[in-house]
């Protein structure tokens, strides 16, 4: 190793916690190769050294985003020297991040994250390495929890960051960062500091510097307390899934008709969680929780009822629920789900590309075919997603355009834009749940306008198709960030 380490270093609480996490969650096998994301910060430096001391064969990858001038190059030089002294293979990926963000029309933060994980995946594939270790720790997880609570979340969001997602592993996720800094002090190793971490205009930094200290004033052991909460929630989620599957299995009706699924209404209705069961059963088929509320309340009614998503039809009749595919037609809605953890991305719709980006504050300038939506004032559903829908409205449908006191028929609005009768039949209305937002791209409604108090902004930009107009029977492809 690079330095003569204290003989008791292997008994340090950090190494003990990391080895325990690796064994508990089967993150690695002894002496396995692992790709380590090395930024030069305290967390990643400690992770690299800790895994090396525990006899895992580490290969380090540093991403230079060239966002902080000479500081970025100094970070790279530090990481290179660290790996040289510890005889750890080292490589660098360089990016023109600002140009990438400009071309993708997303935030620099979002594009840097995507570039980083893409580089990790490519390097791991090239070197035939199964696991990629990143240095998220317990405080990162607690900050994520507080952020999810602030925006509204369900049980999944309360669980925080997963310790494994695919081939990404987080051996530090249950480690208090105080042990990280103590470990580096004991081994006598330096690290780099990113001064942008002090910028409280960034949401996570605001939570770290302004919100988290208040909880620690109430409970100095707040991080450890929340770690126990995470463990309880993981167990609760497991029991929850078991209960859901058992009830749905009890309600399931075997049928030889492969075109549909059938379930008995009574076991679902008598479970005292009928809405949750229906959501677990139907969310993957395009149904939103709020759409299912009324349906769930009347599961045992004698009168039949039918509900639709863009892809499926659900019929309640004679004590049974029947689920089948829905034939596509020009009147079918295009349903779009935007997860709050997907900070930016692109959606291909029948009407062109729809670019989306989440901001903490409204951007200073917006261009053509762009609208801003105040997400923070909208009551988010428990599944932590925004549900947008595109549909061709009837001409006599009324909306309240921005700047007008009353409502106006859509056909009159489109006539004022000098659209022909044929063109008027292909102008979609975008709604957030049932709230009309945008007659794309001509008229913004007065709903969910951004204000000074807004803390979460969704920016949407329509890039109209440059070829012949598509029809509603074309499939919709979704492309979004993680």
Please describe what this structure looks like.
Helix 2 packs across helix 8, helix 6 crosses helix 9 and helix 12 packs across helix 13. The C terminus is likely disordered. A six-stranded mixed sheet has the order 3-2-1-4-6-5, with helices on both faces. A hairpin with a 2-residue loop joins strand 5 and strand 6. The protein contains 15 helices and 23 strands. It is of the alpha+beta class.
Strand order, main sheet: write it out. 3-2-1-4-6-5
The secondary-structure class comes to: alpha+beta
Strand content: 15-25%
State Rg.
Answer: 26 Å
Q: Low-confidence runs (pLDDT<50, min 5 residues)? A: 328-332, 466-482
Write the layout of secondary structure elements.
Layout (H helix, E strand, L loop, with lengths): L12 H12 L8 E5 L4 H12 L3 E8 L5 H16 L4 E5 L2 H8 L3 H19 L5 E2 L4 H14 L3 H4 L5 E2 L2 E2 L7 H11 L15 H16 L3 H30 E2 L6 E5 H5 L4 H9 L6 H9 L7 E4 L3 E6 L2 E6 L8 E6 L4 E6 L2 E8 L10 E5 L10 E7 L6 E2 L8 E2 H7 L4 H4 L4 E4 L2 E5 L3 E2 L12 E7 L13 E4 L2
